[in-house]
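From the methods appendix. Each design record in this collection lists the tokenized structure first, followed by the designed amino acid sequence. Records were kept in a plain field format so they could be parsed without special tools. The example shown here is representative of the layout used throughout.

RECORD:
FOLD TOKENS (184 positions):
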């Protein structure tokens, strides 16, 4: 007989539109000060990077997810468990909610900048509640935290593109790059 975890129904959130407005709306709905926001990066040359608001605390990147990426990601995470050294100061949570990668990138960008960015409200409560949990325990807690799901939904349903179904097969993936102890 399987455990209840074996039969648990997969949770899905509506995918986030790729826009600084959508990401910022989710973040502000969670309790982050409106002085903090996301902006587009139009290129990597000096002139275009000069247009990005400063200071930059994280880079959230959206890219096409291929079979090759999925295979390399699996190999990478196997390496984390065995070989790679990761700073104990990295704030990380596993993604167990389908199509929530945009909000997961927000969590990782903010979770690793809690000393630099003013965070209040429901997100501050969530970070406090999960601070001593493992990445898997944090993910399980997120699955049951209605306030975070509602904040995500606020940003997901308000954009320039049609809102897909929550369980849509999305072919793109968000990741967050954050400097922690000199490493990304």
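DESIGN:
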């Amino acid at each position: 007989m399987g455990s209840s975890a074996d039969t648990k129904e997969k949770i899905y959130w509506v995918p986030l539109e790729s826009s600084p407005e959508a990401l910022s709306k989710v973040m502000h709905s969670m309790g982050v000060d409106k002085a903090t926001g996301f902006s587009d990066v139009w290129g990597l040359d000096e002139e275009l990077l000069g247009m990005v608001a400063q200071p930059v605390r994280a880079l959230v990147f959206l890219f096409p997810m291929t079979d090759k990426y999925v295979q390399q990601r699996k190999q990478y995470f196997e390496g984390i468990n065995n070989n790679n050294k990761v700073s104990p100061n990295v704030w990380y949570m596993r993604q167990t909610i389908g199509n929530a990668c945009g909000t997961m990138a927000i969590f990782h960008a903010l979770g690793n900048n809690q000393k630099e960015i003013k965070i209040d409200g429901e997100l501050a409560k969530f970070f406090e509640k999960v601070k001593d949990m493992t990445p898997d325990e944090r993910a399980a807690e997120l699955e049951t935290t209605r306030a975070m799901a509602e904040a995500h939904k606020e940003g997901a349903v308000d954009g320039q593109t049609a809102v897909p179904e929550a369980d849509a097969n999305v072919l793109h993936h968000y990741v967050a790059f954050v400097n922690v102890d000199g490493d990304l």
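APPENDIX NOTE: The longest helix spans residues 67-82.
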